[in-house]
From TrEMBL:
NCBIfam families: trio_acet_GNAT
PROSITE patterns in UniProt: ATP_GRASP (PS50975), GNAT (PS51186)
Protein name per UniProt: N-acetylglutaminylglutamine synthetase
InterPro entries in alphabetical order: Acyl_CoA_acyltransferase (IPR016181), ATP-grasp (IPR011761), GNAT-acetyltransferase (IPR017534), GNAT_dom (IPR000182)
Length: 602
């Protein structure tokens, strides 16, 4: 036992010695480093803000002054701060200690991973198109965006390195990471490097992208002789910290200081239990209201209820459902049979439909006529009880019984072969459009279908705050069986199958913005449907051949669409515009006036 304690003490002493060796240098060491070429008061522009390297400053007041120069919509970071309490004393009302940990990877002992990325590959950022996609991912992760021209103009900057993960099949950008080379940035005598802005698309279909990006950057700096790679991570980001622990990072005693601004507000104002209890669909609206100075009161966080007050006007909301939506409009949306009649009367194309109470002969004739049908409850939401692509009488009757668990009235519709399109219409104008794709799994040659679905559900749940999971029910089993497999079969490597025909987010579907590619006929149909129901905020669902084509059929209207699913489109902004027109910023109103004038003159 004494020998074990002595061994543990020796290991502990060794770790402490390594941390002391890597600690921020004192003034004498800094003077020697300056003679070796370390820049004084070094600052690096990273596009989203500036990195202020604390070890290059002798006077903490100079660091405070540098952070005071932070530009609008930027986030500067003072890193490697030795005495944060001293720095904060120079600007206590303007600066705060960031609640983050610093982790370090020793590149002298790091060993590359053996597992090759599957379904994607890592490469350098290579075009302005890549830069635009990186910004899309930043926005989906609520990170500060970078002007695409900055990425492109800095592609030859030896201090900054940008990697992206690209899907082998679609070419989509799935993730990104930025690296900073210390010696090239400020003549770092310790020859260190650092990792910033690791971000993975929440819709990414492949596991392990974040790990692959971290490893690629570590190997990049290792090949260039760097001694270590550091990073800063929020103290409560358990998922990221678990990844860094797995890769061999250790926590070191460096601190980070930031300037108080709107972007960092939650980090220095402290937790608000009621606010934190809101789901993403309520939170995105409350965030926008607070940015405009609108008073917000959380009425029931679990239910997504909140009250907004501005200029003597008060509106009670439940996520995107407000008092402006009438009870009549809600009752129309609640019954899909009524919704169908209303929009059909307005000239919107609808699929042929029969009742689930029809006899076997009528159902068989309907199947024979259309090949495949959709079975769904007349009332319900979030894709519950819906079965798509039914081909046999036996499966149809089973699907009808499953749908009756959610509504006594069941509908059978002709199955339109195409993609599921959600259009957000606010104040009878299109604000956002997104393709909703059903959940798919990709075989690795060793995992069963069940295991792959569970892995997919964990990724989707983590990416959506627990909102998205693939249900393990008979409908999922039917879809897997239709693809030619059983739930316990091992899916061959590279084989992709759809495990759910519905594309709802809550049942594992993914959402892909196509607002800029929508055919005018689809916009007209969505607006006509909204006007027929007389609903000011709605999500109109269509089945389409392509966003660029006019072919469609109407599926349903949703009285409480999830606005958080459509970033980067300004859904929350337009919702608050509707509720409080006088809160629209002057610059926005001026721009809209100019646009209207231009259209009239044109």
């Amino acid at each position: 036992m004494a020998g074990d304690r002595q061994a543990d003490r020796s290991k502990h002493d060794h770790r402490l010695e390594k941390m002391r060796a890597s600690a921020p240098k004192g003034s004498a060491a800094r003077e020697r480093a300056d003679n070796d070429g370390m820049r004084k008061n070094a600052i690096l522009d990273c596009g989203w803000g500036r990195l202020v390297f604390g070890q290059t400053f002798e006077d903490p007041r100079e660091i405070a002054n540098s952070l005071r120069e932070e530009g609008p919509d930027r986030r500067d970071i003072a890193f490697y701060i030795k005495d944060p309490h001293v720095l904060l004393s120079h600007a206590p009302q303007e600066l705060f200690l960031d609640p983050s940990h610093t982790y370090r990877l020793d590149l002298s002992t790091y060993r590359p991973g053996n597992r090759r990325p599957r379904g994607y590959f890592i490469r350098r950022l290579a075009s302005e198109g890549d830069a635009t996609e990186v910004n899309r991912i930043y926005q989906s992760r609520h990170m500060v965006q970078v002007h695409p021209a900055f990425f492109w103009s800095n592609r030859g900057n030896r201090a900054l390195t940008y990697f992206v993960a690209e899907d082998e099949t679609t070419g989509a950008i799935l993730g990104t990471v930025t690296g900073v080379h210390g010696k090239r940035a400020f003549g770092d005598p310790e020859n260190g490097s650092s990792l910033w802005c690791l971000a993975v698309d929440p819709q990414a279909p492949h596991p392990g992208i974040g790990q692959s990006l971290v490893r690629r950057l570590a190997e990049h700096f290792q090949a260039r002789g760097c001694a270590f790679m550091d990073l800063s991570v929020m103290h409560d980001n358990e998922q990221a910290i678990a990844l860094y622990d797995k890769l061999g990072f250790v926590r070191v005693s460096y601190f980070t200081i930031k300037r108080k601004n709107e972007i960092n507000e939650r980090l220095f104002t402290g937790p608000n239990d009621e606010y934190e209890g809101l789901n993403p669909y309520a939170k995105i609206i409350v965030d926008e209201a607070r940015r405009r100075g609108i008073h917000t009161e959380v009425v029931d966080a679990a239910g997504g209820f909140f009250r907004l007050t501005h200029g003597g006007r008060t509106v009670l909301c439940r996520e995107s459902l407000s008092e402006l939506t009438s009870a009549v409009a809600m009752s129309i949306c609640d019954d899909k049979t009524v919704t169908r009649r209303m929009v059909e009367g307005a000239g919107v194309k609808v699929p042929e439909q029969i009742s689930g109470d029809s006899d076997d002969e009528a159902i068989s004739a309907f199947l024979e006529k259309h090949g495949q049908v959709v079975v769904k409850p007349a009332r319900g939401e979030q894709g519950r009880g819906i079965s798509v692509g039914i081909e046999t009488l036996e499966d149809t009757k089973a699907a009808i019984e499953a749908a009756r668990q959610h509504s006594p009235t069941v509908l059978l519709e002709a199955c339109f072969q195409g993609d599921d399109l959600r259009l957000i219409v606010i104040d009878y104008r299109l604000v956002a459009a997104a393709l909703r794709k059903p959940p798919m799994i990709t075989g690795d040659g060793s995992s069963t279908v069940v295991d792959l679905i569970e892995h997919l559900s964990r990724r989707r749940s983590a990416a959506t705050g627990g909102e998205s999971r693939v249900p393990m029910d008979k409908e999922t089993e039917r879809c897997v069986r239709q693809a030619g497999y059983g739930m316990d079969d091992v899916l061959p490597e590279g084989e992709r199958i759809t495990v759910r025909k519905t594309a709802n987010l809550h049942t594992g579907g993914t959402i892909h913005d196509v607002t800029g590619d929508i055919h005018p006929a689809l916009v007209e149909a969505a607006v006509a449907a909204a006007r027929a129901i007389e609903i000011p905020v709605t999500g109109i669902d269509l089945m389409i051949k392509s966003p660029a084509l006019a072919d469609y059929v109407f599926i349903e209207a949703n009285e409480r669409p999830g606005l958080a699913n459509h970033e980067p489109q300004p859904t929350a902004e337009r919702f608050i515009d509707l509720l409080f027109p006088l809160s629209v910023p002057f610059s926005v109103r001026a721009a809209r006036t100019n646009q209207r004038r231009s259209r009239k003159e044109g």
